[in-house]
Amino acid sequence: METLQVDQEVHLGVDRVTLVGDLARPTRAQGVILFAHGSGSSRHSPRNRKVARALRASGLATLLIDLLTPREEAEDAVTGHLRFDIPLLARRLGAVTRWLQGELSTAGLPVGYFGASTGGGAALAAAADHGEVFAVVSRGGRPDLAGTALPRVTAPTLLIVGGDDVPVIAMNRTAAAAMRAEVRLEIVPGASHLFEEPGALEQVAALAARWFEDHVPPAHA
Domain with 134 in it: what CATH number? Predict the structure, then answer.
C-alpha cells in the first residue's frame, strides 16, 4: 500500500477560470507527473487513475487535473471544439507546471507529463515551451496535434499505442519522425484505443513507470 504524504484536491486559477485537480505524493517522491486527459475524459478517468497509482507505487507524485471547467466540458460535448484547442490546453498545462514548481509540497521535484488521446498533443506542445520537463509519456495519444511544436520538444518521449489502433499508430509514427528529442514508440499487441483488454492497461502503467524512472534527473533518482 502506498504511503501518501500529500493527498489533496487543489483549485488553481488559470485563464480567469478555476481548474480542479487531485494531487497525491508518496513520502519520498522522486518527481511529479502531471496528467493531461483526453477528449471527453476527466481527472476521474479510471484508466488514468490506475496508471497514476502505479506511478505512485514507483515513487512518483501525481497530479490529475481537469484542464477544462465543467461549463467548458459541457460546451465541448456539443461542439467538440475545445478538446482540439491544443494552444489552450498547453497554456493551461504550462500554468499548472509553474504552480507545481512553486507549491510547497512539490517544489524542487522534476515535472513530467502523461498525456492521453488529445492530451498527448497538449502535453508535447507544453513540453516544447517548458524545457525543464524531464519526460513525456503519451497513451493512445494524438502527438500529431502538437504540429510545429514537435521539433522543439527536448524531453525524452514515449509514445504508447494499442496494436489494434491502426490509424493512431500511423499518426504517432509521423509525429515521432518530426521530433528531435529521444523518442520511442511502443505498440501493445492486441490493445484497442482505450486499452480495455485484459492486461493492456497494466502494460501501459509498467511502460510509463519505467520511462519516468529511467529519465528522472540523477539528483532525484
Answer: 3.40.50.1820
